[in-house]
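C-alpha cells in:
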C-alpha cells in the first residue's frame, strides 16, 4: 500500500480483505454488508483531510468493528413482537371507559384534597412528587429545614391518602417502605 493512497482509496482496495475479516468476526453476511456500507459512508465523511494512524488498515478494521457494535446496540433497542403485543394490550386496557371514568373521579378527589392543604404543603408536595426536587432544594426554596420539609410532605401525603382512601408508603428516611 502506498503512503499516498487516501483512506477512501485504501478502503476500496482493501474491501475484499476487510469483508473476509468481518465475516469471520461477525458471522453474518447481512451484518457485514451493512457494516461495510456504513463504514464507507464514515470514510467518505472523513475525507482526505483526516490524519490516519501509522496503521490505516487497522484503523479501517477498528472503524468497521465500531460500526458493527453501534448497529448491534441500536438493534437491541427494538421491541420484540411479544413486547409490542404487551404494549397494545396495555393500551387497550388503559382506554377502557370504566377505567377512564374512575381515573377522572380520582383526579377530581385529588384536586379537592390538594385544595384543602396549606399552600406551603401543596407546593412542597408538588415540588417533591411532581417536579422530583430533592428535599434540600425544597428546603432552600422555602427557607425551612430539610426536617420541616419532610414533616410537611408527610402531612400532605397522609391527607391526600385519606381523601383518596389510599395507603401512603414512606419512600425515604427511617421506616421507608412502611405505611405511614
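Residues out:
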Amino acid at each position: 500500500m502506498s503512503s499516498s493512497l487516501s483512506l477512501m482509496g485504501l478502503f476500496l482496495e482493501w474491501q475484499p480483505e476487510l469483508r473476509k475479516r468481518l465475516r469471520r468476526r461477525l458471522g453474518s453476511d447481512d451484518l457485514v454488508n451493512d457494516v461495510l456500507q456504513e463504514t464507507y459512508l464514515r470514510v467518505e465523511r472523513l475525507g482526505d483531510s483526516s490524519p490516519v494512524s501509522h496503521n490505516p488498515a487497522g484503523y479501517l478494521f477498528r472503524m468497521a468493528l465500531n460500526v458493527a457494535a453501534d448497529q448491534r446496540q441500536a438493534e437491541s433497542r427494538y421491541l420484540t413482537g411479544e413486547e409490542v403485543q404487551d404494549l397494545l394490550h396495555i393500551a387497550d386496557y388503559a382506554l377502557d371507559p370504566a377505567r377512564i371514568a374512575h381515573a377522572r373521579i380520582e383526579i377530581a378527589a385529588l384536586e379537592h384534597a390538594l385544595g384543602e392543604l396549606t399552600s406551603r404543603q401543596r407546593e412542597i408536595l408538588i415540588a417533591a412528587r411532581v417536579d422530583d426536587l430533592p428535599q434540600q432544594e425544597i428546603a432552600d426554596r422555602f427557607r425551612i429545614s430539610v426536617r420541616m420539609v419532610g414533616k410537611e410532605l408527610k402531612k400532605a401525603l397522609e391527607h391526600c391518602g385519606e381523601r383518596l382512601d389510599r395507603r401512603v408508603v414512606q419512600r425515604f428516611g427511617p421506616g421507608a417502605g412502611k405505611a405511614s
